[in-house]
């Protein structure tokens, strides 16, 4: 990626114009809350600053569609008509490749509420599960699914954030309990919620189990997210049948 991918935000010098370029440090500070980061000096950064800058520049890049050559005084090319979508796709691909080579287990999210934020790397199966759930959930629950995924996979996700993500997923399934009961039958549907109720995930009662490994939260979240996908499919499968019934002639 060339420097022209930052021109929309940082501007570019011209021999004919005054030096009124945006103040780069202030521009970054507004997004990251840290002053004096421009010019970039990596040796002064801590880990959070490094990761934060990766995310900030994801939001700043844009690709110019047009350019014109200004020959006066050897000024050079000027760029215009910027679009950030293609630039961000390219940026994510290049940054994710660099992170993989460095052995850093984060990647820039390509979709979801946390688009362009660094998230924990998962295997292909879970990555595809997230993609399907984010894109195939009914509109009524899409925002909640997106929020749950963002909470859980954030690079700075705390145990409380992960619990909240699980609670959000369980809440969606609770609303679909009649559908689940129809397919599993009573009382088997209750087994689906037993873990959420017996462990201190949502109700946080004194009689609930609290002494478990943190990795348990990962297993529970992905299990419930997969169940959300399952119920999405059950809902989708039922819709054509309902539509067909409604369109049948009354004879």
Number of helices: 10
What is the terminal-to-terminal distance?
A: 66 Å
Class by SSE composition: mainly alpha
Average pLDDT reading: 85
DSSP strand count: 4
Q: State the helicity in percent bands.
A: 55-70%
- Cα-atom radius of gyration: 24 Å
Low-pLDDT stretches: 246-251
Residues in β-strands, percent: 5-15%
Q: How is the biggest beta sheet arranged?
A: 2 strands, antiparallel
What overall geometry do the principal axes of the alpha carbons give? elongated
SSE string, helices as H and strands as E? HHHEEHEEHHHHHH
Identify the strand order in the major beta sheet: 1-2
Describe the structure.
With 251 residues, the chain is mainly alpha-helical. It has ten helices and four strands, in the order αααββαββαααααα. It has helices spanning 7-10, 24-32, 47-60, 84-101, 124-136, 139-153, 159-175, 177-184, 188-198, 215-247; strands at residues 63-70, 76-83, 106-108, 118-120. The radius of gyration is 24 Å and the shape is elongated. The model is unreliable at 246-251 (pLDDT under 50).
Task: Set down the secondary structure blueprint.
Elements (H helix, E strand, L loop, with lengths): L6 H4 L13 H9 L14 H14 L2 E8 L5 E8 H18 L4 E3 L9 E3 L3 H13 L2 H15 L5 H17 L1 H8 L3 H11 L16 H33 L4
Antiparallel strand pairs: 1-2, 3-4
Helix pairs in contact: 3-4, 5-6, 5-10, 6-7, 7-10
């Amino acid at each position: 990626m060339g420097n022209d991918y930052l021109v929309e935000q940082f501007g570019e010098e011209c021999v004919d114009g005054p030096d009124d370029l945006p103040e780069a440090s202030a521009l970054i500070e507004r997004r990251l809350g840290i002053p004096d980061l421009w010019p970039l000096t990596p040796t002064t950064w801590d880990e959070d600053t490094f990761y934060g800058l990766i995310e900030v520049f994801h939001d700043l890049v844009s690709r110019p569609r047009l350019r014109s050559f200004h020959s006066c005084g050897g000024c050079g090319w000027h760029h215009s008509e910027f679009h950030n979508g293609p630039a961000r796709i390219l940026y994510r691909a290049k940054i994710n490749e660099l992170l993989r080579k460095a052995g850093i287990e984060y990647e820039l999210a390509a979709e979801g509420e946390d688009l362009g934020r660094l998230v924990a790397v998962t295997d292909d199966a879970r990555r595809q599960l997230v993609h399907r759930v984010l894109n195939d959930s009914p509109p009524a629950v899409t925002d909640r699914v997106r929020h749950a995924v963002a909470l859980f996979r954030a690079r700075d996700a705390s145990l409380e954030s992960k619990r909240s993500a699980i609670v959000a997923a369980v809440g969606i399934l609770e609303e679909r309990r009649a559908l689940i009961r129809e397919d599993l039958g009573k009382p088997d549907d209750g087994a689906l919620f037993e873990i959420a109720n017996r462990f201190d995930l949502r109700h946080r009662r004194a009689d609930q189990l609290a002494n478990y490994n943190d990795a348990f939260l990962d297993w529970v979240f992905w299990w419930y997210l997969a169940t959300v996908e399952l119920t999405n499919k059950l809902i989708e499968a039922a819709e054509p049948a309902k539509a067909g019934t409604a369109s049948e002639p009354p004879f």
